[in-house]
Design a protein that fits this description.
With 388 residues, this protein is mainly alpha-helical. The chain has 17 helices and two strands. Helix 2 crosses helix 3 and helix 12 crosses helix 13.
Length: 388
């Protein structure tokens, strides 16, 4: 479990290795002596098992301002957290009209935002990006009153925040993106349909540009590392982000005493894959394929246990939802829910819940759910008491 104001030690070591790698090669996203990823005293891909954004930004800022990696990481996450809280509060007080909704929203925005800052790790982007953009886009009918130039700037800014967030923690901005696309498509009025379509295109411009730039940097790093025989031997330079690695060890969520049930840890997934193929490179496509096969073998062998695992995860997630949805339960069943509110929040809640189902319902994976649930309640209060 992450400690307050302390990024995971191995991630800090990865940032240090990325900075050292840049000092040696003058190329971003190359690490040197990445001890946590089997890169002792050699060059290796930076952020090999992770999303690479923070391995680019934090070492760069550390070098630019001559700060230690530890201090840079703390400032990086704290600054983004503070910025997202302020952006969220701006949207709340600018677009929301109910005094009760403003007070209620302010309390939960500040609470969840500070929780994310206290975590000070890439997980916090799940909650912070959702907080920053939800208060703005959940009031789409109010946004229609803004002149087109300002609305275009908002679409560009939104795309930039989402793309930046996704580079640091994959999919951390996709919940808001999905919500925006849904309400834009389904709540389009005839006289603004053409503009809405153009707006969707605009929001993807910064997303494509940022993804292209990150991909270009990764390709340059990969091409450089291909020349190093020891690196090629030890790492798969066409590695994929771990998906089945996490899914497989999450089968041990209930910690049942059975030799066939995984232990919920990264090392167990690695051990399992290497039992089947001792030469497989960790986090390679072949590695993921092995764990995918083992995952479905487990389901076939223990279908009822698998259902029990999913039900247990869903129960924990639902409890978290109730805690943060809070007073919203009353407004949900007492009053009619508006279409724009339903279409915006329900997809985001489902999307964020999926992280806990796919891996484990640890609160660090569910910060986006906390944000969406509390702001869903805020919007229901606004719908009830707003005079607009």
């Amino acid at each position: 479990m992450p400690q307050l104001f302390q990024t995971m030690p191995c991630r800090i070591e990865g940032y240090k290795a990325a900075l050292e790698g840049f000092n040696v090669t003058d190329i971003h996203l190359i690490a040197y002596n990445d001890i946590c990823n089997n890169g002792n005293n050699i060059l290796s891909p930076s952020g090999y098992t992770d999303h690479v954004g923070s391995y680019l930004y934090i070492p760069f800022l550390s070098k630019l301002f001559n700060l230690s990696i530890e201090n840079t990481a703390a400032l990086f996450f704290s600054f983004y957290g503070t910025l997202c809280i302020l952006i969220s509060l701006m949207g709340l007080f600018y677009f929301y009209n109910s005094k009760f909704a403003k007070i209620y929203g302010m309390v939960f925005i500040t609470t969840i935002g500070l929780l994310c800052i206290f975590i000070s790790d890439t997980y916090c982007f799940y909650g912070l990006t959702s907080l920053a953009l939800t208060t703005w886009w959940s009031k789409i009918k109010e946004l229609e009153k803004i002149n087109y130039k300002k609305l275009i700037l908002l679409f560009l800014f939104t795309g930039l925040i989402i793309s930046f967030s996704n580079t640091v923690r994959g999919n951390s901005g996709d919940d808001v993106l999905i919500s925006i696309l849904i309400i834009t498509i389904f709540l389009t009025v005839k006289d603004k349909k053409k503009f809405r379509i153009i707006s969707i295109f605009i929001i993807f411009v910064p997303i494509f540009l940022v993804n292209f730039q990150i991909s270009d940097l990764k390709n340059k790093a990969r091409n450089y590392l291909m020349k190093n025989e020891e690196t090629v031997e030890r790492f798969d330079l066409n590695f994929v982000r771990a998906t089945w690695h996490n899914a497989y060890y999450s089968l041990g969520y209930l910690s049942i005493d059975n030799k066939d049930v995984p232990i919920p840890s990264d090392t167990f997934s690695v051990k399992k894959a290497q039992e089947i193929n001792s030469k497989v490179k960790v986090y390679s496509a072949e590695y993921e394929k092995i764990l995918k096969n083992e995952y479905f073998k487990f389901i076939k062998k223990y279908p009822f246990l698998f259902i029990q695992i999913l039900a247990s995860k869903a129960g924990v997630i639902f409890l978290y939802f109730l805690i943060f949805f809070n007073i919203g339960i009353y407004y949900l069943f007492k009053y009619r829910i508006r279409a724009e509110t339903f279409l915006f929040f329900i997809p985001g809640i489902i999307f964020n819940s999926a992280f806990g189902i796919a891996t484990e319902p640890n609160y660090t994976y569910l910060l986006g759910l906390f944000a969406y649930s509390s702001l869903f309640a805020t919007k229901l209060i606004e719908d009830k008491y707003s005079k607009v």
